[in-house]
Amino acid sequence: MEIKWIEDFIALAQYQSFSRAAEFRNVTQSGFSRRIQSLEQWVGAELIDRSGFPPVLTPAGQLFREAAEDVLAKLYDTRAIIRTEQRIAGKSLQIAAGHTIALNFLPGWLKALSTHFGEVRARVIPTNVHDSILMLVNGNCELMFAYHHPELPLHLDPERYEHVTVGIDTLMPVSKPNSRSAPAFRLPGTKQQPLPLISYTETSYFGRCLALLLDRAAEPPALQLHYESDMAEVLKKLVIEGEGVAWLPQSAIAAELAAGDLVAAGTATWKLQIELRVYRDSSNRNDLLNALWQHLRASSASLG
């Protein structure tokens, strides 16, 4: 039995929808259903009544939910205590962020922060969006950085979790240039010669952004999946090696675009603008965090 099965089950009990719970858990609906079935096999009873809509808990499911929530709460509390003891002493921050943000945004952001607050020790934990949210909700970080698009919101209670916009990024298609400095792979491609696509896994946040962008297209491009990864840095390396076209955040490829190692593979219609947000739990009244938040609010006003 795996903890993620219990977390899946609790999400399903809350949302009463396999599709919404799967989206929250950042997994495909088929994969989510298999995990619920695996939990039921481990328990030895049906936990979900699937005969009607919405799906509801069986009596066994209701009993298991009470025990599951209690067990998870104790595990999370114990983990929070252990992680707190392991934190850096002094003026410090625990930060959860996506890999792209941790690599391309946070180093410069933390350096700029030192001019206002002096030396701030930070422990940056690169992770996926779902795990970042869990860290914030479970009190295992003071700040969580994540990308945001209004049609792909994160599942966070706005009454409790405040956010500030700290940047604007653009997901754009890029390709290795040919000998004439034009894109070796140019959108939209043709049915006879579809473009090799280096893409994100469909459950990753950038994967959902790309699906949104392609769904909006008046005429879908001719693409053939070539490679797939949930990390933008892997996609960037493959594009530089000439393996195909990929949509990458502009912040992650600024140097390569300036040097001519990468070029835009399509017009502005193939781009998607996304926000970079930082979140905090408003119930956390840490003095450093409060002062930092006021500074971020003031700085965010200039972005508007």
From TrEMBL:
Keywords: DNA-binding, Transcription, Transcription regulation. Transmembrane segments: none annotated. GO terms for molecular function: DNA-binding transcription factor activity; transcription cis-regulatory region binding. It comes from the Bacteria. The keyword Ubl conjugation does not apply. Residues 1-58 form the HTH lysR-type domain. The keyword DNA-binding applies. SUPFAM superfamilies: Periplasmic binding protein-like II, Winged helix' DNA-binding domain. InterPro entries: LysR_HTH_N (IPR000847), LysR_subst-bd (IPR005119), WH-like_DNA-bd_sf (IPR036388), WH_DNA-bd_sf (IPR036390). PANTHER family: HTH-TYPE TRANSCRIPTIONAL REGULATOR (PTHR30126), HTH-TYPE TRANSCRIPTIONAL REGULATOR YJIE (PTHR30126:SF2). Belongs to the LysR transcriptional regulatory family. This is LysR family transcriptional regulator. It comes from Trinickia symbiotica.
